[in-house]
């Protein structure tokens, strides 16, 4: 298990993930690798990222275990997803799906699965049922925190909150 970075505010896996992989150039670099563009020049061209920033982001993604570098020629490398990076693909596809629905009149890219357009859905791995926002029951599990914020009464039990 990887130790979570120290981030101000509520202890949260979303914050930790964004700290590691949530900036624009990291996400766009991962998009390009998803699309099969694994070489630095391809990633730079297709993201529009400044080359120096992109180099730093790719180095960080490698250091964090999201990407790995594989040599394809002497001193030339391609970037590939690790298992941790592959697990982020659902996040990228969800971002794309949300953007297609709310930010684009006509989606610029369509992802297909077995010949049909993919319609991602959240499904519980335990019971196999679809999950919507009203199905979630959040439980504060971070020491010293409740769902509403820092626990000012540490002797009380953990609280829960239903999302709206």
From TrEMBL:
Coiled coil: none
Record bears the keyword DNA-binding: yes
Chain segments carrying region Disordered: 144-164
Skewed-composition ranges (Basic and acidic residues): 152-164
Xref: Pfam families: HxlR (PF01638)
Signal peptide: none
InterPro entries listed in its UniProt record: HTH_HxlR (IPR002577), WH-like_DNA-bd_sf (IPR036388), WH_DNA-bd_sf (IPR036390)
Keywords in alphabetical order: DNA-binding, Transcription, Transcription regulation
Keyword Mitochondrion applies: no
Domain HTH hxlR-type: residue ranges: 12-107
PANTHER family cross-referenced by the UniProt entry: TRANSCRIPTIONAL REGULATOR, MARR FAMILY, TRANSCRIPTIONAL REGULATORY PROTEIN
Protein name: Winged helix-turn-helix transcriptional regulator
Source organism of this protein record: Sphaerisporangium rhizosphaerae
């Amino acid at each position: 298990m990887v130790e979570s970075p120290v981030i101000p505010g509520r202890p949260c896996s979303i914050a930790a993930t964004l700290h590691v992989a949530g900036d624009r150039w990291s996400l766009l670099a991962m998009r390009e690798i998803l699309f099969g563009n694994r070489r630095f020049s391809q990633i730079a061209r297709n993201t529009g990222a400044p080359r120096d920033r992109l180099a730093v982001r790719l180095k960080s993604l490698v250091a964090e275990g999201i990407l790995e570098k594989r040599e394809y020629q002497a001193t030339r490398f391609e970037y590939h997803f690790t298992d941790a990076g592959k697990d982020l693909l659902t996040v990228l596809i969800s971002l794309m799906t949300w953007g297609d629905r709310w930010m684009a009149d006509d989606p610029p890219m369509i992802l297909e699965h077995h010949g049909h357009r993919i319609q991602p859905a959240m499904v519980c791995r335990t019971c196999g049922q679809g999950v919507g926002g009203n199905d979630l029951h959040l439980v504060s599990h971070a020491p010293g925190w409740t769902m509403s914020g820092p626990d000012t009464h540490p002797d009380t039990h953990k609280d829960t909150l239903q999302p709206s």
